[in-house]
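Input.
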Amino acid sequence: MELIFEKSVKGRRGFRFGNSDVPTHAQVPSKYARKDEAPLPEVSELDVVRHYTHLSQRNFSIDTHFYPLGSCTMKYNPKFTETVARLAGFADLHPLLPQLATGEKLTQGALQVLYELEQWMCEMTGFSAFTLQPLAGAHGELTGIMLMAAYHKAKGNAKKKYVIIPDSAHGTNPASAAVAGYETISIPSNKNGGMDVEALKSVVNDEVAGLMMTVPSTYGVFEPNIDEIAELIHSIDGIMYYDGANLNAVLGRCRPGDLGFDVMHINTHKTFTTPHGGGGPGSGPVGVNAKLEKFLPISRVIKKSDGAYALNYEYPDSIGYIASFYGNFALLVRAYAYMLMLGKEGLQETADHAVLNANYITAKLKGPYKLCFDRLCMHESVFSAGLQAQRGVHAIDIAKFLIDQQIHPPTVYFPISVSEAIMIEPTETESKQTMDHFVQKMIEADELSKTNPLVFKEFPKTMPISRPDEVKAARDVKTSFFLPDAT
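Output.
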């Protein structure tokens, strides 16, 4: 393939990749070939740069705005971890290099990072082994459920076909279980936000493969009956699965492995400040206890007696490959650097601040807004805009109002079990001044709902698009490319 400079019939010049010996029309099947030239505008580089810079200035981002986005933990990503991930020794590694005969000799530094990161995650969570392959939290969930399935298959538990999931779970939980071939059973929450243990007891039998839980839950509540729940599931040889989405609330305070869980995934973006958003990149390491360890994906990093690191493929019971060995390696480097900088005490302090910040906002807003569970929360809290809705102002209207206040809206209408839900998570990285500003604007929204509720239908006023039909936009996606008129 060579780079060819050509002049079009309309006088435009440019480069194309191709074989100069093959006519252009022969390189592309006729049904895909253009009949006419694409109507591309003639613009200068400066016009293009200004156009996209202007578009970027319309965006909300964690670098420019407060993101109290419940459940998703949109925290600040330290810039030094970006620098570490871009070091040539990390950034220039080819993901398939370990497959070469000399690969391990060339990647000792990378293998050391992965090995030590796995060991640190084991220490923090109470599990015996980790895999860093999964490429996202949901991918980690699927991996965990596959490990559950492998365990039951090895034991001949052919009747296991159900996975129990509380109604406070993340939406990916039932999806992951279904993709792995299981049917799901939903358990309601009680009046305190915990799982209804009596409802759980009524469905537990020998056909249950396991239970997936998020602790603290999506309601921001720590499950007080976790010991009883774990004992109940283990009594029928079920697997306890821990959704690690909210690990940032308990880091250094308790370990999932000590609570009776057998497997978990970690969202590195939620707990260890790797990038999040836009569909990726992601990372969802999975930890297991001793009874599931032999089923982990291959290959696995080992440390040999001479201190060198190597890849071991000799695990006959492994579920196989989940992704290319390195996973999203650059994200893992970022998480490694973050842990290394903070250390044990620093990581514990982040959890303390996450809980403190969430309870501060909860205390400030539980007057104007209905608090779903009036108790100490963990990393986030769930309110209802039910009172405001009676005045004609719904959760979505408050979200649109906040956009004009230069605040990204909290999560609304989730959890779906809460009417007019507003789920707020400030994270540990926000200052008191930022949270006070947010609280002030939320109170202003409540006051405005009393005095002028109709005005909410005009928000946001500062955005290029104000009130699109969001359902239609999701179902009828249209994209267009445009540049400013250069004439």
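Residues 329-365 form the longest helix (37 residues).
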